[in-house]
Amino acid sequence: MTDSSPRRPLMAANWKMHKTPAETAEFLARLQPLVAANREAARPCDIVVAPPFPCLPAAAAAARGTGIELAGQNMHWESHGAFTGEVSAAMLLAAGCRYVILGHSERRQYFGETDATVNRKLHAALAAGLTPIFCLGETLAQREAGETEAVLREQLERGMLGLAPAQAAVCVIAYEPVWAIGTGKTATPETAAEAHRYLRRRLALLYGEAAAAAQRILYGGSVKPDNIRGLMAQPDIDGALVGGASLDPQAFAALVNF
Ligand code: PEP
Questions:
Q1: Which of 168, 217, 151, 178 is nearest to 6 (CA)?
Q2: 176 a catalytic residue
Q3: Which domain holds residue 38?
Q4: What are the percentages of helix, strand and coil residues in the chain, rounded to 5?
């Protein structure tokens, strides 16, 4: 496939609460030869791995010189302070991260994240020089009630509130329908693409056509080696944020080498 899109694909592994430092090093050692041809591929991908915080030093050591980038799975918006259990943007950068996942539906569902807190985190991440992978998506109930576009619009606009156009341009957006995450129910390529097109139209209204055309929008929700090609054939889908299938180096490599 030749690259007709102005956007470079990105495959991001969200390990959630899985793997130890030793397992992280082993994963990266196994992944690396499997994705070595990516750099010379017709459509090379950016490869990002988001391990649990204690695995970042092992991941940074194993990923050095490979082109594989690291992401934090979350962060606090403050730079330091009495926030037990939290980490800051500067800490993620110092641990070797270039990206941070923000607003994941599991954070929203189980840890009380709101559009307002996600917005504060986006500002803090960008100010520190991290690239946010900003997650949004509707629940099944919202989809069945015909609210998908309204929910996406609200999450997008509230999450990105107050960002300067140059800051917005840095963000990677991840459309993750909540009903498809970890359920084995992938959105069809057409359903996913419809949401991506809608998000791009909203981005055009917020930041202009050229900015919207350049913004990377990933799909997330039960992405697997057997459904990645259909998703990536959609012009508005620029990559994937992957949970379950990213825990196995063979499966994740198959996604990178789609
Ligand atoms: C995710 O955690 O962002 C995700 C999409 O998980 P899964 O691929 O397991 O559905």
A1: 217
A2: yes
A3: 10-256
A4: 50, 15, 35
Tokens read off for 220: 């997330």
Beta strands in the chain (DSSP E): 10-14, 46-50, 69-72, 97-102, 131-136, 172-175, 217-220, 239-242
Count up the domains in the chain and report the number. Answer: 1
Output the pTM of the full model: 0.96
Closest ligand 1 atom to residue 184 Cα is: 10
pLDDT given for residue 3 in this prediction: 47
pLDDT in tens, 27-57: 999 999 999 999 888 889 999 999 999 999 9
Q: Each residue of 77-130: pLDDT tens digit? A: 999 999 999 999 999 999 999 999 999 999 999 999 999 999 999 999 999 999
Query: What is the CA(221)–ligand 1 centre distance, in A?
Result: 5
Residue 1: inside a domain, yes or no? no
Options 76, 104, 106, 138, the catalytic residue:
104
Largest CA distance in the chain: 51
Q: Supply the residue whose CA is at minimum distance from atom 4 of ligand 1.
A: 243
Whether 185 is in a domain gets the answer yes
Q: Could you tell me if residue 3 is inside a domain?
A: no
- CA 207 to ligand 1 center in whole angstroms: 28
User: Which of 51, 86, 57 shows the shortest CA–CA distance to 71?
Assistant: 51
**CB–CB of 109/139 below 8 Å?**
no
Q: What pLDDT is recorded for position 6?
A: 79
Residue 127: alpha-carbon gap to chain centroid: 19
Within a domain: 125: yes
Give the pLDDT confidence score for residue 39 in this predicted structure: 87
Ligand 1 atom with the shortest distance to the CA of 180: 10
CATH number (domain holding residue 58): 3.20.20.70
